[in-house]
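Record type: ASSEMBLY
Status: queued
Input:
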Amino acid sequence: MNLPNPYRNDSNEGAAAMNTADFSKIGSLSATEATLRLIATLPAPEGLAERVQLRLDAEPRTARVLSWPAALRPGAHGSGTGWLRGNAMRTAAAAAIVFAVAGGGWGIYSRVQPASSARIIAMPPRGNAPGAFSNAGAIRTPQTANGPVLAKPIIASPVIVKPNAKNLAKPTTPLAK
Amino acid sequence: MSASQAVLTGWMGTAKSAVQDDARSKAEDQAKEEALAALVSQYAATLYRVAFSVLRNASDAEDAVQEAFVRVLRHRDTLGEIRDHRVWLIRIVWNVVLDRKRRMKTRPETDDVSDLARVLPAEGLSAEERAAAAQHHAHVLGCVEQLPEKERQVLMLSAFEELNTVEIAAVLGVTESSVRSRLFRARNLMGGLLNHSRHSAK
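Status: finished
Output:
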């Protein structure tokens, strides 16, 4: 006997004959299907729709904090033709938002002056990291700046001392007398 | 016509259009309410069955249906944009029941037996036969519970004759081919589970 297997994708007629395990599997599967279908076809309780409708009637309708005016409500003038539905109006609204944001940003930027940058460059402290080589007391000496350069360098002229005539005329030694 | 008359005429025209808009919006609200009521009367039973197949408790299933329709009520402005209301509603109630099931504790099989004995049709069955049938179905459902989540979901939804593979895929948000492969795996696993339980019972 070659029963078709409804739970296989291939419906091959030349397949090997099914063994007992296959039959029991089919029986199990049909039991599963029967149970699930039974539950899937259970009748709904009486008055379910009415109870659901009552619950819906009790729910608040105005979920929004602020409701749009009727003329401005999206989709108010027929389906899909509200004022926000038009592409032109959407583009205009988007452009207005962009301009407002950009204008506000420019206003703030133009009023606030950027702070002048500090002239002192903070250097990180020179410390020996733990485990690193020590500097052995060597201190880096920065190159000093060149001093002011004079346009006309002063050349030191030698001082000529003239001999005094009086002193020369009067010999102080007694031999001279 | 003087300027004051022109202003008055314009103001009257504006007021008249505002009244017309208000009446139109009321009519639209009324139409939405009617559409929602039609959905309730048409699909409440289907949603109940879907909810019951997962929750397996009548009052829980009814609560889930009500919660699903409350969610629909919040999106009633977009009802016109939905293509297939049936699949959309089943997807909503499916998410509601899965959410509830995650929060619930694991149901013991005895609860299933008692609940199923209460709801299963009892035509031509004695009390004993009915109890045995309920026990059998509860056991099968217990095996279904042991399946991996993805396979279990597909198997349960496939039992609904209203849903084909494409619609199951739409409810679960997966592709049609993955629905088919999951269904194939689920059936194989289910056969193994039931065989194993049958042999262990012997």
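Annotation: The mean pLDDT of chain B is 81.
Annotation: The CA atoms of residues 32 and 80 of chain B lie 9 Å apart.
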